[in-house]
């Protein structure tokens, strides 16, 4: 896969159709395979930006994923290009057992049950969590739930991953494993986090949000982040 996997052009994002913009005039693009961190303090708009990219909020201006302009008619098509990791893994784990949950996205796309299960098993293996396949989701630790949610996002082999605070609540070994995993993936990704060390381990490019504005896009956000300490 080559080309642009995500592009925003003068995009503004709104929580309510006629309310104030939570993000204003945002422009940037991400190329295939590029890993980009989305940094910002609490409330700066990271989650809203990720949600806006997949049509979960209102937008004006252009949002384009894998060359498809986000709009009412293209919503389903756009979402098929994206693996989304919500801030709280529980918000996206819906089925009782791990393997069923991970296979769900494939069944939705019309894959036969047996093939969906095979592909779900493969992604669990790639994430080193095959042994969880038969477990009920409510038996899992936070770190395990996070990896299962990630498996569900990866199972359809999307070219773009939108990850919301993926390192939150992980212990140091869990965090290290996540860094290794993300660095191994070929997908382009936008990783929202306020964990700068984590961002530096995964990404070479940093976007910084401040109160709904994109205030930095480059490879060394250091001086800007001094005020965070
Ligand atoms: N459902 C909502 N309705 C209206 N405003 C919201 C909603 N969710 C978040 N906000 C506001 O949007 C702004 C950005 O929040 P958010 O995108 O969650 O930031 P971050 O993920 O960087 O912490 C904040 O001012 C927050 O209060
Ligand atoms: Mg957030």
Task: Walk me through the structure.
It contains 8 helices and 10 strands. The protein has 229 residues and is of the alpha/beta class. Helix 3 packs across helix 4 and helix 3 runs parallel beside helix 5 (142-154). It starts with a strand and ends with a helix.
- How many strand segments? 10
Order of neighbouring strands in the sheet with most strands: 6-7-8-3-9-10
- Measured between the Cα atoms of the first and last residue, the distance is 39 Å
- Which ranges are low-confidence, i.e. pLDDT below 50, for 5 or more consecutive residues? none
Specify the number of helices: 8
Briefly note the CATH topology name of the largest domain. Rossmann fold
Strand content: 25-35%
How confident overall, as mean pLDDT?
94
Helix content: 25-40%
Number of domains: 2
Which secondary structure elements does this structure contain, and how are they paired or packed?
Elements: E1 4-14, E2 21-31, E3 35-39, H1 46-53, E4 58-65, E5 68-69, H2 75-79, E6 82-85, H3 98-108, H4 113-126, H5 142-154, E7 160-164, H6 172-184, E8 188-193, H7 196-202, E9 205-210, E10 213-218, H8 222-225
Helix pairs in contact: 3-4, 3-5
């Amino acid at each position: 896969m080559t080309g642009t996997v995500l592009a925003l052009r003068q995009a503004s994002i709104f929580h309510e159709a006629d309310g104030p913009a939570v993000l204003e005039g945002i422009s940037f693009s991400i190329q295939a395979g590029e890993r980009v961190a989305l940094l910002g303090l609490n409330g700066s708009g990271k989650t809203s930006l990720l949600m806006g990219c997949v049509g979960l909020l209102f937008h004006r201006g252009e949002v384009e994923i894998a060359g498809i302009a986000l709009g009412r008619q293209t919503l389903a098509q756009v979402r098929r290009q994206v693996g989304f990791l919500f801030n709280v893994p529980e918000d996206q784990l819906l089925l009782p057992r791990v393997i069923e949950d991970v296979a769900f996205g494939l069944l939705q796309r019309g894959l036969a049950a047996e093939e969906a299960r095979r592909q779900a098993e493969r992604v669990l293996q790639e994430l080193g969590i095959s042994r969880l396949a038969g477990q009920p989701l409510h038996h899992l630790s936070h770190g395990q739930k996070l990896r299962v949610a990630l498996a569900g996002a990866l199972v359809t082999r999307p070219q773009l991953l939108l990850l919301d605070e993926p390192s939150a609540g992980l212990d140091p070994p869990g965090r290290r494993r996540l860094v290794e995993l993300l660095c191994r993936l070929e997908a382009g990704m936008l990783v929202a986090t306020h964990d700068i060390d984590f961002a530096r381990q995964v990404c070479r490019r940093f976007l910084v949000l401040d109160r709904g504005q994109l205030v930095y896009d480059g490879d060394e956000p250091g001086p800007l982040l001094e005020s965070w300490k």
